[in-house]
Amino acid sequence: MNLAFMYQYFHQPRTVGALLPSSTHLAKKMVKGIDFEHAGCIVEYGPGTGVFTRELIRRRSACTTLLLIEYNRHFYEKVKEQVRDEKNVYVIHGSAENVQKYLIQYDIPKVDYVLSGLPFASLTSEVSDCILQNTRSVLAEEGKFITFQYTSFKKQLIRSFFPQIKVEKEWRNVPPAYIFTCEKNQI
């Protein structure tokens, strides 16, 4: 799996943010703030090889809908195969910029959590702004946007859409990653 991931990184560096897939340590830290008992819908941007997806599926309640949006065709096919027997899991080959359209397509009125593995440092400012604005608009009032980045460089950009951010670091990932848990409303 790592060789396939590296291949995708070298051939599509703007859409694959790292040389290696995320660690299970990072996946566990990314989902630890999710109230799985009450989450009606969780959206994942850029599931890649499915590290976070597997953790979401393992912990979610049976009635939680998962909407996975993957831009990279290779990763889309892999994740679709991984979740083919799961109920209430939808995999879309598309862009997170279009999250609103996909929610309408699946008749999902609100999102409780958005997890993101998108490399904001590699995306244009227009694409980043569009994704963050649309994410903010689809989240329920108490919803959370949880993303990781390899630097804190994009924290100010994210804060312009989500004023409340809690930051943690996961050292057991290669490379180490910052986890931003973001909320729409200020304290």
From TrEMBL:
<dbReference type="InterPro" id="IPR001737">
    <property type="entry name" value="KsgA/Erm"/>
</dbReference>
<keyword id="KW-0949">S-adenosyl-L-methionine</keyword>
<dbReference type="GO" id="GO:0032259">
    <property type="term" value="P:methylation"/>
</dbReference>
<keyword id="KW-0694">RNA-binding</keyword>
<keyword id="KW-0489">Methyltransferase</keyword>
<protein>
    <submittedName>
        <fullName>MraW methylase family protein</fullName>
    </submittedName>
</protein>
<dbReference type="InterPro" id="IPR029063">
    <property type="entry name" value="SAM-dependent_MTases_sf"/>
</dbReference>
<dbReference type="Pfam" id="PF00398">
    <property type="entry name" value="RrnaAD"/>
</dbReference>
<dbReference type="GO" id="GO:0008168">
    <property type="term" value="F:methyltransferase activity"/>
</dbReference>
<dbReference type="GO" id="GO:0003723">
    <property type="term" value="F:RNA binding"/>
</dbReference>
<keyword id="KW-0808">Transferase</keyword>
